[in-house]
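writing this on my phone so excuse typos. first protein, seq and then structure
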Amino acid sequence: MAQENNTQKLAEQFEELYEEANARSGGVAGILRRTVEQVSEKRAAQSAASISYYTLFSLFPLMLFLVFLASLFVDVNQAQAFFVEIMFLVLPDALGIQDMVVNTIERAFTVRGEIGIISVLGLLWASSAAFSTLTLSIGAAWDYEPLRSPIQHRLLGIAMIIILGVALITTLVASTVIGVLEALDIPLVSELWNGGTLLGASYPRVVTLAVSFLVFLALYHWIPRAHVPWRAAAIAAGLAALAWQVLSVGFSWYLSSGLARYELVYGSLTTVVVVMFWVYLSMLIILVGAHLSAAISLHLRSKWWRSAREKLITDQQ
């Protein structure tokens, strides 16, 4: 009995400390607490594992579809070089991961002439599995709003792939234009594109950080059915983009440091296992960011209601 009373008093003391910390931080402690609780309650780790599983089967159909789409608008060699460069920026540089994906891209360009309309539609449907699962998991973070149906999530996944394809084509065309401007020897363009003194060697990382921020911002603002303030989405997207950059650098260092010996356990499957693990960590960051965005949104909504109620009471007096 005495032990139960001590435990209860300790819990009350911790609750008092939390309330004080939450008040002093302007609600930040409450946002973090709700984020942790929702990540655990909604099983974000299991959802990330599910998405990484679907990604394994969606990645290569997605590449084939994007290759087919790109080859309709730009030179094949230019499109291939662009996709390879994107993979070098995104994937960890260790254990043959980049080589495996680059070989797949080269194979995709080799067989692109054999892809017909039916095959393209099949690739689009197959590659949307990971995206539809991702949208479902992100939408689950806003538990105070009804979820979309599975068909709606599948259509959202297909729409995301189409938008991704359009963005890549736009980037390819932009790179061609910049290449022409660079050939005209325009100093500012040369400095930006070649990573000169203006941005230096950090240029690829800056671009990757900016693009990931914009992608996460779009996911957190438009995917949920709830109204998500831009402020909440931007804060969560910024933190998620930074975390993803740290993950990319840290994971590459870990794999190349000799501390990881996955090949001793998985043998020839090492590359596939490591890719799935990297995707899992990436998806976990995205989902934690979604729950953080939902917690911030709820905090801003509660803050607005409290302000409106106080103003109403003041007006009545």
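second protein below, same order as before
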Amino acid sequence: MHRFCHKITIFLMLLLFIGVVPKASADDPLNEYLVKAAFVYNFTKFVEWPPCRTDQCDSKELIIGIYAAEDVADHVGRAIASIDGKQVAGRTIIVRYITNFKEIADCQLLYVLHAELDDVKAVLASAKGHPVLTVSDMSGFARLGGMIELIKVGNKMRFAINRNAASDKSIVIRAQLLKLATFVIE
């Protein structure tokens, strides 16, 4: 019976991702960003952050930072804005643009979009020591030390997880999400 319930749970998780996340279209960048925003929203449901340790941390908010080049900020802003204000586990999602590396420590999730390799390394270094879930669509992001890499395969979006990077910051990625990943770096 337990095994049957486990299989049903995994099946329902797959339906959740398939049902909430529409197909990405290479011809429509805004639609692709909306798909990525839906993935980010769903990631927050299957991640556990360590408890807040500072007075500046509001346990009722989940801050999502966007680190993006200016030329794509409009598309990202419109897409991520669709999850601003939504509730996840009793917390309200607040979306902010990150304008300097010091602001990274205030985020629970940081979405890095179309950054140069040196910028990505600087962003990851700035997040070091802080429980910030790092997500990007940059090729090789998970292997560079990012936690979740969005991967476009044909017209579908997939993802890879760097479990070591998350564990190093006391971020727990639940087994349901790990099972859905294309690959996991242990």
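Helices lie at 2-20, 29-45, 70-80, 117-127, 141-144, 163-168, 175-180. thats all i got for now
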